[in-house]
Amino acid sequence: MDMISDSVQRLIREVQQRGDQALCDMARRFDHVSLRPSDLIISKQDLKHAKRLVSSSYLKSLRECAKNVEVFAQIEKRRLTRSWLKLQGSVRVGQLIRPVDSVGLYIPGGRFPYPSTVLMTAIPARVAGVRRIVMASPPKNLTPEVLAAAALVGCDVVYRMGGAGAIAALAYGTKTVQPVDFIVGPGNQYVTEAKRQVFGHVGIDSLAGPSEIVIIADKRTPVDYIVLDLQAQAEHDPEARALLLSTDRKLINDTRKRLSKRLSRRVTLRQVSSLAKAIEIANGIAPEHLELLFTGAEKSLPMIRHAGAIFLGPETPAALGDYVAGPSHVLPTHRAARFSSGLSVATFFKRSSVIGFGGRSLERARWEAALVMGQTEGMENHADSLRCRMAAR
Questions:
Q1: What average pLDDT does the structure give for the chain?
Q2: Catalytic (active site) residue 382
Q3: pTM (2 d.p.)
Q4: Distance (Å, rounded) from C-alpha 181 to C-alpha 262?
Q5: What is the predicted pLDDT for the residue at 359?
Q6: CA-CA distance, 52 to 277, in Å (whole number)?
Q7: pLDDT digits (tens, 9 = 90+) for 339-361
Q8: How many Å apart are CA 197 and CA 16, to the nearest integer?
Q9: What are the chain's domains?
Q10: Exactly one of 14, 212, 289, 291 is catalytic; which is it?
């Protein structure tokens, strides 16, 4: 077991054994904040007060971002497959689609506070119909701006707790922290490992890695756009990575000249023979963010198979997706876009199969097929449960 995995396992065990006191000890050890168990929950009064502590311009922007996220979520919900039943002869089959009952949102701390992540996780959950939405974040990350976002979206409870300990508390509960069914939200490698270890006891959205972007550009793409988008990506964390693919050598050289030494170590610049070749490479990478910074980018969508989020045209930086476009910015990383999707309303839904048989004489072929399969597999009790009903016709 590697060092991170072993450390996280110990932290989870501490929370399971010592509950609230373990969380308070972790706050002192990792966040350098002294807490009592009674301090783990942010009071409703403090949440309301936070909205009075932020600037009016921030509150206006927060509401605009929230509005767009909610509009997108509502559209998505209407387009999702709804519960259904179909009658096939005397057999009813279908699906019952329901949201999870409770979800814990993890809002990371670190270099910056992230009120935008509160919106991008809480609003899709609320639109999906999740009954109980709680939030956890490291104590020092709970700025008035973050708390104002939590108040705006209607989080039921906000906890002062971060890191692997917070994930453990959300999964297993303590005297103060009521456990949830599902945990979402990004975090550092300790948070990600904790989510991996509690998965199965609770559901999780994904195992997030360092942020990443692939930019595809042609000779008409302004170099300023490219350089600033690369810098914006690097701003997420020191491990963030970026790739520029272009058919134009001059554009690549001009971009290279504009990159700082620190940023150039984290950015790969590559000339390709065509935009189609660039998209082929991007599909192999399956990036979190894919910027198509060329005119007519929408025509390339049929060629794209794997990407967390796709940004169309030179006027669409990934930063718009981070805040106000509508889709959640919580996206698959480390090639996970090959098999998974970004957080959305669909994340919070689960499907139950519905099966109803009647009129056995009308469905003889199905009953006999099931009986033969049970006998073939040696599952005699299965076969007997079928025979009993077939004999009662």
A1: 94
A2: no
A3: 0.93
A4: 42
A5: 67
A6: 52
A7: 999 999 999 999 999 999 886 66
A8: 13
A9: 3-205 (3.40.50.1980), 212-341 (3.40.50.1980), 358-391 (no CATH)
A10: 289
If you search the block for the tokens 């969508």, which residue do you land on? 301
Active site residue 49: no
Q: How many residues can be counted in the chain? A: 393
Query: CB neighbours (10 Å) of residue 202?
Result: 20
Residue 248: CB atoms within 10 A of its CB come to: 16
233 within 8 A of 289, measured Cβ to Cβ = yes
Mean pLDDT of 222-250: 90
For the chain, the first-to-last Cα distance in angstroms comes to 59
CA distance 211 to 138: 20
E strands, the chain, in order: 84-88, 91-99, 102-106, 132-137, 157-160, 182-184, 203-204, 212-217, 241-246, 267-271, 289-293, 309-312, 349-357
Q: Which of 145, 193, 288, 291 is catalytic?
A: 288
For residue 332, what pLDDT band results from cuts at 50, 70 and 90? very high
pLDDT in tens, 39-48: 999 998 999 9
Is pLDDT above 90 for 255? Answer: yes
Note the pLDDT tens digit of each residue in 53-74. Answer: 999 999 999 999 999 999 999 9
Contacts for 265-268 with beta carbons within 8 Å, 24 or more apart? 266/234, 266/240, 266/241, 266/242, 267/230, 267/234, 267/241, 267/242, 267/243, 268/241, 268/242, 268/243, 268/244
